Amino acid sequence: MNNLKSNEKILIRYKRFSWKQFFAIITIFLLLSLTQTQIMDTFINKGTFQQAKYYFTAMTLLWTIVAITFILIQHHWVKKNFGKPLEELCEVTQEVAQGNFDVHLDSKNQSEYIAVTYENFNQMVQRLSSIETLKDSFIADVSHEFRTPLSVIQNYGTALQSENLSEKDRFEYADTIIEATRRLTSFITNILRLNKLENQEVATDISSFDLSNQLTEAVLSFSTKLDSKSIQLETDIMDTCPIESNEELLFIVWQNLISNAIKFTPDNGKIFIQQKIKNNKIIVTINDSGPGMEDETIQRIFDKFYQADISHFTEGNGLGLSLTARILSLLNGEVCVDSEIGKGSSFSITLSKKYSI
Which of 138, 217, 228, 259 is the most exposed place for a label (fewest CB within 10 A)? Predict the structure, then answer.
């Protein structure tokens, strides 16, 4: 099939009738008319051949008119119920093919199959529009995330070439470059993880382990950051808590949430981590004494690349909480957020003791 030009309009031409169809129906009706031979024989036997001739001609004309009328009615019905809708569908699909997703088909007053087709088409266009929007947003966000650290690496790398640079500045610039590369590595790792998990339907590598021990390890891994901000950490973690889940993925959850709490907790602030069992469910709550969040932020906090507080832009890339939500979804867990401006935020994670598909 030849490709259509962007300004070329699709035209559907209708024939008034199909000649093959016409002759087929005429043949049928002629055969029906010939069934009147007994009446004709009666006319001939009585010597009224002229009457028989007129009768045959009249019957042939009558059935011919009936056949043509039937074909025209059928043509009108097919054109109205299928031809026009298909012509409309061809026009809007051409619009979509040219990149226009702001099209919609009205399924009212359509036959059942056409109405279903229209609804499916509308859903398809809506999904395509969402995918296109997400793609553009993703490219813009990824480009921005790459541009900032790469600019830092380029600028400080150029500065390192200066012959008059002191040894102290040289080490400082090198540390800045290392931090930028660390951020890039973290960003790429999170993208790959999130992409892999979004294509997964169920969690794999399920094993039994002690959740209390894992939480303790996660907290200890942030001891340096906690000390650097003089954050007071309080914990209420159970002595032991066996769980059946994906150990590696759950550790990422605790890392992301604790890191997020430290990031938004001011110097000399407080973080409280509690673990308990309620209604045969494991509940882990992480409270911080940060600035809190507005309702709009809470609604979007698990979106990719979303960062409400740009003052902490260099400390993250907006993928941690999105990754956390996807992991918990795979592990049949839930995450709830409770926050109020000026009173900090609280993340509550609910997990089942045993993983089930």
Answer: 228
pTM of the model: 0.56
- Contact at 8 Å (CB) between 118 and 106? yes
pLDDT tens digits along 36-82? 555 555 555 555 566 666 766 776 777 677 778 877 777 777 776 67
- For range 83-95, the mean pLDDT: 76
How many angstroms separate the CA atoms of 271 and 337, rounded? Answer: 15
Question: Which residues, 6+ apart, have CB-to-CB distance to 227 below 8 Å?
Answer: none
**Cα–Cα distance for residue pair 57/52, rounded to 1 Å:** 9
Measured torsion, CA atoms of residues 306, 307, 308, 310, in degrees rounded to the nearest 10? -150
Selection from 327, 311, 318 nearest residue 187 by Cα: 318
347: β partners = 286, 337
| Residue listed under structure tokens 């279903």 | 116
Distance, CA of 304 to CA of 313 (rounded, Å): 14
**pLDDT tens column, 144-170:** 667 778 888 888 888 888 888 888 888
Residues in the chain: 357
Q: Token pair of 16, please?
A: 């008034």
